[in-house]
Structures are given as structure tokens and as C-alpha cells.
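#lab-general

N.A. 3:47 PM
ok so I finally got the sequence cleaned up, no stray characters, all 139 residues accounted for. can someone with queue access submit it? mine expired

B.Y. 3:52 PM
send it over

N.A. 3:53 PM
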Amino acid sequence: MRPHRLVAAAVLTMALATACGDQKLVWGAAPSVAPWTATTTRPPTPPTRVVRTPTAAAAAPTSSPPAPRTTFSEGVYAVGVDIQPGQYRSPGGAACYWARLDANEGIIDNYIGNGPSILNVRASDAYIELSRCTWTKSG
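B.Y. 4:20 PM
back already:
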């Protein structure tokens, strides 16, 4: 074996023996001090860079929030969420129906008719049920 390969083999043997905790293979005798513990440390994490561009800082909203709906047709609507309290009018229809409902969807008041009608949605109503006609907020 060539000398530089012999030295490399000896260093590798010592490193493996040390990593495995066998000090006798490395030094030929038990160590006079307690075996050492290897620790590893990670290099510090570089700080995060935030890059602000002029266009990002100057960006303005492109549109305003949508206006609340004022026209409703068939469906059940949560008062204060889907439909706002107030007065709604309908030109009528065949068997036009509305119902004011409580939180358990029990009927507080209802109406069915064929001609024009008015519905007063109250803040105390939980839901409004509409069927077979279109309603538009009038007040």
C-alpha cells in the first residue's frame, strides 16, 4: 500500500472508531477522561428580506364593495345578512308568497296572493322566505 493511502486509511479508521464510541481502537487503551460528545451547530439563518416595490406600496383598491341587494326572488334569506330590514314591494304573480320566520324557521307571519303586495321585513325576523314573485326594496 502507498504511504498516503495508509495514512488516509488510518485516519478513516480512527474517525469511524471515534464516531462509534470505541476509544480503544483509536488510542489502544481506555481514555483517561470521559468520552467526549460531538455536537453540531447550524449556521445562523440569514434574516428574511422584504422587498417593497413602488407599485405594491401605491396600490389602491380597484373597486368599492358591492352595494347591498335591493331585489329578491325565490329563496330563504337571513335578515341582516342576505336581506336588510325595510319595506319591499312586489307587482304580484300567481300565488305570490312571503313568510317572516323566527330563528327556528317557524312562521311569524305569512301571505299568499295574486296581486301587488307589500312585505315589511323587521330586524327581529331571523329569515324571510319568498316564492313565485320578485320583491324590490322600497323603503
